[in-house]
């Protein structure tokens, strides 16, 4: 199984809603990532988890709250988002943190904030 | 932060032709990777070249790396309609971060 699975594929939420994005991999990867991608732009790193601990937070606003319950799961909790947060949110994983190996990406969640 | 810059921004070629795109970066790296993205969905890893390598092949893909010029190129030979996608270079400094370039949009015409 070489897949990273993200749910949901599409999400529309209001600015007062609370929602969560989910990401799952069963490749035994110990590094997991959240990226944000706006249209016609490259992915931008948000968070890195290394061995289930948050290693990097790229100064992401607190309305985005990551969680890594175990080595296979990664969540991104969303609360009080703004319309400019609408984007494609990509989850990725790699074998071991900081060893320069390829990243496997999920298909993303297309988020629209209304 | 965005480390790599790609050139050209867009490329349109006929099926069967070769496509070449370039990536330049600013700081020293451990490796450079190329990814493909179809229609704004997930990225697919194509090839990884380490800083001590100069050239690498994978099927119809050829990647070069010139660390003295801080640049890399991706060549797709004998292009197919299915190669239509956005291509991103990404640099890795072994610091947990993969930094993506702006990307090249490739359109292969039948």
Order of SSEs of chain B, N→C? EEEEEEEEEEE
Summed over residues and divided by their number, the pLDDT of chain B gives a mean of 92
Order of helix and strand elements from N to C terminus of chain A:
EEEEEEEEEEE
**Helix/strand structural class of chain A:** mainly beta
Q: Helix fraction of chain A?
A: under 10%
Number of strands of chain B: 11
- Helix coverage percent of residues of chain B? under 10%
Instruction: List the uncertain runs of chain A.
Output: none
Uncertain spans of chain B, ≥5 residues at pLDDT below 50?
Answer: none
Total beta strands of chain A: 11
Which oligomeric state applies?
Answer: heterodimer
Which key features would you list for this structure?
heterodimer, A: 114 residues, mainly beta, 4-stranded antiparallel beta sheet, globular, B: 110 residues, 6-stranded mixed beta sheet, 5-stranded antiparallel beta sheet
Structural notes for this entry:
- The complex is a heterodimer of chains A (114) and B (110).
- By secondary structure, chain A is mostly beta strands.
- In chain A, strands 2, 4, 5, 6, 9, 10 and 11 form a 7-stranded mixed sheet that branches.
- Chain B is 0% helix and 56% strand.
- Chain B is globular, with a radius of gyration of 13 Å.
- In chain B, strands 2, 4, 5, 9, 10 and 11 form a 6-stranded mixed sheet that branches.
- The interface between A and B is medium-sized, with 30 and 25 residues.
């Amino acid at each position: 199984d070489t897949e990273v699975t993200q749910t949901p594929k599409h999400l529309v939420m209001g600015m007062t809603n609370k929602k969560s994005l989910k990401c799952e991999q069963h490749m035994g990867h110990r590094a997991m990532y959240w990226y944000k991608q706006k249209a016609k732009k490259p992915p931008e790193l948000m968070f890195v988890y290394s061995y289930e601990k948050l290693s990097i937070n790229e100064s992401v606003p607190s309305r985005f709250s990551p969680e890594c319950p175990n080595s296979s799961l990664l969540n991104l909790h969303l609360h009080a988002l703004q319309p400019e947060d609408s984007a494609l949110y990509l989850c990725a994983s790699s074998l071991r943190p900081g060893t320069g190996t390829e990243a496997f990406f999920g298909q993303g969640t297309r988020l629209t904030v209304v | 932060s965005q480390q790599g810059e790609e050139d050209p921004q867009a490329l349109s070629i006929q099926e069967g032709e070769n496509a070449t795109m370039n990536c330049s970066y600013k700081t020293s790296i451990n490796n450079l990777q190329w990814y493909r993205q179809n229609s704004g969905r997930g990225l697919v890893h194509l090839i990884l070249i380490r800083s001590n390598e100069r050239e690498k092949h994978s099927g119809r893909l050829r990647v070069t790396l010139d660390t003295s010029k801080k640049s890399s190129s991706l060549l797709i030979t004998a292009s197919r309609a299915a190669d239509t996608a956005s291509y991103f270079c990404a640099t890795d400094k072994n610091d947990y971060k993969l930094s993506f370039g702006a990307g090249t949009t490739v359109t292969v015409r039948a």
